[in-house]
Design goal:
- This protein is an alpha/beta fold and 269 residues long.
- The protein folds into 2 domains: 169 residues, 3-Layer(aba) Sandwich (Rossmann fold), CATH 3.40.50.300; 67 residues, no CATH class.
- The strands form 3 sheets. The protein has a 6-stranded mixed sheet, sandwiched between helices. Strands 2-1-4-5 form a 4-stranded antiparallel sheet, covered by helices on one side. A two-stranded antiparallel sheet has the order 7-8.
- The longest helix has 16 residues.
- It is globular and about 55 Å long.
């Protein structure tokens, strides 16, 4: 009753359960990516239309992994390929240029400009498209933001001009997602995407991720919430002390197998 919807037994995929979707082109590839004292020799592939979950316990290195792919942390070795082509990502600006976006674990410290409006936060990574002949087009900015506010059901008491700090955690998270969708990313990475988010907004975010995968985005979701990873992912990797320890299709994975792999327990133990 509080969230205004039936949450039933939990979130279920609208397109049905199962493994990975029909094979599509790889959009993001990592080859032996390493950041000392964080993660080592990580190789993975995320295809268009796929949600790849990376499950690890807190401190396993998965948060550093996405930050490094995005250019927010240094990479010591390894390669990143986008759409089959090697790319050099030394800063978040480089990441945006190759159409990759990151929703960070701490949205207030790393994602949002709290003293700015919802409008400004949504279009923050897309100003180049909203500028013509050196002039910023405010009407185009409002039109673009309105589209995402309506599609993502971002509830903004006071309208799009209200400071984003006054929105609930779930609506702030939706605004961050809207920023990357407005920027036109093809690879979307999410760190702990539903921390501090109520159950209604959580399910809205899961619905959105499923829709985005169907539209062809490659989604890399890292989380320490095992139920989240099991529910949303098409394919799941586990990480322990910075190393990938297992790979599972969604239909094959269980809480027990994921926890064993993410705790460094070998199959014969």
């Amino acid at each position: 009753m509080m969230v205004g919807r039936d949450i039933g037994e939990g979130w279920t995929r609208k397109t049905g359960a199962g493994g990975a979707p029909a094979a599509q082109a790889p959009l993001l590839e990592l080859r032996n990516l390493t950041r000392r004292r964080a993660f080592e020799d990580v190789s993975l592939t995320v295809h268009a239309g796929e949600i790849l979950g990376v499950f690890g316990l807190l401190g396993a290195g998965h948060v550093h992994l996405t930050r490094s792919i995005f250019g927010a942390e240094r990479i010591d070795a390894g390669d990143i390929l986008v759409d089959g082509q090697p790319v050099r990502v030394r800063s978040p600006r480089d990441s945006v240029k190759v159409e990759m976006g990151l929703v960070p674990a701490d949205r207030k410290a790393e994602g949002l400009v709290l003293e700015r409006s919802v409008l400004e936060n949504v279009t923050l990574s897309n100003w180049h498209r909203l500028t013509r002949a050196g002039f910023f087009r405010k009407p185009a900015e409002r039109t673009a933001t309105r589209h995402w506010v309506e599609r993502l059901d971002i509830r903004t008491t006071g309208g799009m001009d209200v400071k984003i700090r006054y929105l609930s955690g779930g609506n702030q998270q939706k605004a961050l997602l809207a920023r990357w969708l407005e920027a036109g990313v093809r690879v979307l990475m999410l760190n702990e995407p539903t921390w501090g988010v109520d159950v209604g907004a959580r399910f809205d975010i899961y619905d959105l991720l499923e829709e985005l995968a169907q539209e062809g985005l490659a989604i890399l979701l890292v989380s320490s919430d095992i139920q989240e990873v099991l529910a949303v992912s098409h394919r799941i990797l586990t990480i322990y002390h910075g190393r990938i320890t297992g790979e599972f299709l969604q239909g094959e994975a269980t809480q027990e197998t994921l926890l064993r792999a993410a705790s460094g327990v070998t199959t014969h133990e």
